[in-house]
Amino acid sequence: MVDNNTVKTESYISVSNPILWSPETPELYILRIIITDKSGNVIDESYSETGFNDISKSGNQIFQSGRQIALNGINYYEDMPGFASALRYEEVEKDLMNIKALGFNAVRVPGRSAHPYIVNVCNRTGLFLMQEFPMNELSSHYFEEERFITPAVDYLTEIIKRDRNEPSILAWGLGNDLDVSSEHTYNYLKSAALAVDSINKRLKYYTSHAFNEDICSELVDFIGINIYGSNYNSIKDELTNLTNKSKPITNRKNTSYFISSYGIKIQNGNNNGFSDIRSQESQMKFYKEIYPVASQSFSGNFMSSYADWNSEKPLNYPLDPNPYLQTNGINTFNREQKLSTNFIKRLLYREDLPRIQEGNHIHEFPYVFIIAGMVIMIIFAFFINKDRKFRSGLARCLYKPTYFFALVKDQMIISRGYNILLTLGISIGLGLFFSSVLYFLKDNNSFDMLLSKILTNDSTKILFSEIVNNKFYLISTISLSIIVTIFLASFFLYFVSFYTKGKSYFKIIYTICLWSILPMLIFLPIGTVLYKLTESNPAYIYLSLWLFIILAILSLNRILIGAKSIFDIRTGKVYFYGLIIISIFIALVYSYFYFFTGATETYELISKLNQS
Predict the structure, then answer these.
(1) Phi and psi of 516, rounded to 5°?
(2) How far apart are CA 250 and CA 213, in angstroms?
(3) Burial of 185 (0-12, 13-18, 19+ CB in 10 A)
(4) Domain residue spans in the chain?
(5) Domain 68-348: which topology?
(6) N or C: which end of the chain has fewer CB within 10 A?
(7) 427-483 pLDDT per residue, tens
(8) Distance CA 22, CA 28 (A)
(9) pLDDT tens-digit series, residues 156-180
(10) What CA–CA distances, in Å, run from 235 to 232, 259, 269, 298, 339?
(11) Could you tell me the pTM of the whole model?
């Protein structure tokens, strides 16, 4: 043997009738390895713990030593008071022993590889562990290049080599919330699955949302379904559809599922009864409704979190003074029990459940949206009814924009007062509309993911959150932003006027810009009632957004018509230059989001994950 060289060697041992590791009997064996020289002198020796396990899968069920098992699990985040992700063994041991005492038999560290402390305690206490690879919420864009896939698979290989002798590890996770509708993701998962099988033939899985275009299911043994949302009736319908054999999901060849995450965020000090979706009682009610379906229809289920935990980015809708704190745990961040802690213990042990207080919570009514919209509409109706000139101007602008813009240029038929009135009507109308949309989406997980990419600075996102969660601030901010946008567009056209033969005053240009977007006034009544309508049917949000896009295109066309009138430019020329300017603006915005924020890839991922 040459000095300063590494030599790999394999040794084999035979163990007669070992006691197999299981959650009921977490039997471990000490492996002693001794290195000696030719004379028998000990050069080095090491000790390690290991165990023997026999896990298999048949159909949609998991078996241990031929006995069918069901996973009653909970997610565990590596985040502790005073230490964050720098874990202390004693605290990890205390947490996992509490998890075992509650009746759980499995844990999962979502979207990252469990710390060796967690692995060790799971071995000793008797908890199955789903060991994951930190491949989180990635669109298929990242899997298009081999230079990304190769180091990813190499990292996965190192994790498996490190932990392949740990008896508590039930399966290897190849990614969390992936876009599994793409050939590029398929190629990554194929490479990862082959790498796993070449080292350690344990079960394999990935997690995602439940959507129809999953083409990768055949590459793994089972699929984890992450459930986001708080409406347990719609969730139960979704789970029923997953297991409906008469209507199999398109392209999904493997129908072995487990529920990898389900739960809701709450206000920890809220005890208003389950009629309040943010109360502790609501968390109890949620698990009471979902657990029976998740445990009976699937091979395993994992509740969202053992304790509250800090996310990497501030939340758009925090339910705690700490804007980073995710409050979906059954314990607080400081490991204080919530009402759901003992309730879940009784649920897992199939004991009689206590009655959950309903309370008499009154749901929020959007008074601000309705009052603000009604006041502006009454003022508008008063002036339309009072002034025939204003009324005829609105009609001309809608039906004969070219003629109307010519009159504005030559005669300036619109007074400053009516410009102010229309500015307020359009800006407040759009303010109400976008405020309703943002306020409705404020606690939406997908919306929060996208915001984290767009608002890359934490303080900016916290400021945005403070505005969005206050309806008065939100309406005021958006309305003011619309007014500023109209002024900026007018200043841009005023600047352009210096390079055209048709000179014009800023007042005329502003009037034409403002009246070009007159169709947007329809959002004044829509914004007044939209939030209330979406409480019964969220589809109104998407319909109104499509209406906005259509009217935005129409308004841009009307602005080009107005520019033709005030600048005395031929129709073809104004459309040519106008479309170039609009295209450049769109390209700049898209490039910023694509190259500097990653928002476009996140939007692509969200779009795929939300297709169900």
Answers:
(1) -65, -30
(2) 7
(3) buried
(4) 68-348, 381-609
(5) TIM Barrel (3.20.20)
(6) N
(7) 999 999 999 999 999 998 889 988 998 998 999 999 999 999 999 999 999 999 999
(8) 10
(9) 999 999 999 999 999 999 999 888 8
(10) 5, 11, 26, 14, 22
(11) 0.88
